[in-house]
Sequence to fold (738 residues):
Amino acid sequence: MTNDIIERIKQNVIQGRMDKEDEGFNGGMVSQPGVKELVQQALDEGVDPRRIVVAGLTEAMKIVGDKFEAKEYFIPDMLASAETVGAAMDILAPYLAKSGVASKGKVLMATVKGDLHDIGKNIVTIILKGAGYEVKDLGADVGPEAIVASVREEKPDLLGLSALLTTTMVAMKETIDSLAQAGLRDRVKVIIGGAPTSVEFAAEIGADGYGADAFHAVRVVEELRQAS
Amino acid sequence: MPREGVLVHRIYERLDRDQVERIHSVSMEILRHPGIMCFNREAADIFASYGATVTAEPSARHWQVSIPEALVLQALKRAPQMVKLGARQEENSLILDGNEPRVYFASGSETNIWLDMRVETFVSKADHSVAVELATFHPRRGMLADLCAAARLGEHLDNLDGFIRPVNIQDEDITEENKDVNKFFACLNNMTKHVMAGLTSLDKLDKVIRMAEIIAGGKEELRRNPIISFITCVFKSPLQLVDDTTQKCIEIVRRGMPLVISASPQGGSTAPIKEDGMVAQINAEILGGIALSQLVSPGAPVIYGSVPTRAGLDDLADTYGVPEFNQYNVDCVQMARFYGLPCYSTAGVADVKVPGIQATVEKLFSHIVIALSGAQYIHYAFGLLDKTATFCPVQAVLDDAHIGMVKSLLRAPKVDEVEVVTSLEQIRQVMATSQKLFVRYIRPKLRSGEVTLPYPFEGDKARDEILLRAHEKMQELLQRPVEHIPPEVSERIFREVPGILPRLNTYREG
Fold:
């Protein structure tokens, strides 16, 4: 019985079906329970939340990743699956906390001052949530002062900074310098990304990592987490 | 159900109605005076019997035929506006409707050179640790085995709707005597799509038709599902009705087989380079041929075949990559539509000798423009290079992907009450979320084929690996099996149709 519901959660994550309203990518699945309903049902049936995460969500995302590598899945598929995992984690969070299980880490995300482009940052946010991180999105056009204040208050493990314009990427350095001036730089790992940035630029401004795309960003976050 | 092709929602036309009628009038004038030089006695007699003025020119061994407009119009009324091109697998058949701009793409046409591609590794002279893989090209004479491979490849190219042999068979044991039966059998045995070809020897026509009857399941079945059709270029431009191809035209329509009646003048040498003059002349030539076909056999399934090219300014060779080529061809499609006849048109030939940027530009240019014009059957669309002198199978794989993109481009827009309400709802739902992303709505459209997949030959974006990826794809497609003609049918063909080489027998022992 337990295996059955875990398998259904897994299949629905692979299909990226959020809830019963979701038709799935083949259509015709409307009214069948999606990830949200199935996770709640599993909890109601007393399934261990850690088992839901490990055997259901994580296993499913491994398969999704394999499909992406094989070019059977595309970014929309990855995002849809990651979104379902993010929603599942929201439901599971209090249960996991009760079981003494901590999240993989807390991440703050922001598009830097003067830049309103937030698609890339939003996608990274979804993928990170799907990977099991607790993510707080500060939005777009966020100045160094506001970011410093949030880091002080939220105490994240990682800070993700995004910029699309060559004119706004300089604000990344300002933000990192502000963190240093506030004495917070050693308390948070900083990862940057966005079209005009590069691994060289990340090194130049003193960031800890650079994500070439959303999936690379998650790998870098994992590496930084393990290193610390 | 026939193949879908692509139904063009809004066709591209260059000529307004007055211009079309003006060209029609000039074509009629051309057929009246100077008229046509007819080198075929039977055709001259047929025209004469229907009221054309025929003057014998014994010294030049031809007849000067002045065809009145009324005769042409009367003959055109008899020509069917819809022609079915059948297929071994009937779901691969094509319906060519002169009044519907449904576009099919086909290969063609009998190049002498087959261009192999190899992947070789080159090491930098400056830094021996730097090595790159590059494509090299190796031309050679086309052979029967190549034609079989081309048919197998064509079977698996999703966007290839009809097959015209893209390579001439030049094996030592291929002669005028056995060429027709071998080329048709090689094509038919390696694919289930429609096979169209010219005829090398008129006296082999009945053998080829017999072969097709055996495959189709009898005479009547072949009439109902004509798995093969023919092409005759009856005119040598300007305005000379050739003895040999005219006789082929007469005999093919007598047997009720579908026939493309084509003309291929070259703007600047065998026709005026000016758009109006070129189109008026080729139109006159094609109508002259179609008129003859309908006088011989009223209602014979014929197709308006326009292959106008422009003279190369450096060598007077046919040139396909220039804008005028597209202008001529688009106009011809429009003229065919004016008469309600299905049109066999031309696109996808590169002037350059090898695949690459120039080939892609030249090919895609005409693939898009001629498809937009709504031509029902676009030949030459796959793998042709060097002004139709060369066929490259890797190029055919690339062309297939590009034609797929063209077909996607031409899909009709879906804008109706249901669609706009759905979109409005989608926008409202997304605006209520924190991420404001529409990405999740891509998925169903991706799976239903409404969203185009990424370019299939893209490498890692740091270098151009298109040819390498296309080469891999070609090799993979050639490994896939095809549905050969069943053993008992094959055996009967070998028994009843002499001349087919034993090595083409899929079921031969040893």
Summary: Chain B touches chain A through 13 residues (CB under 8 Å). The domain at 6-14+80-410 of chain B is CATH 3.20.20.480 (TIM Barrel).
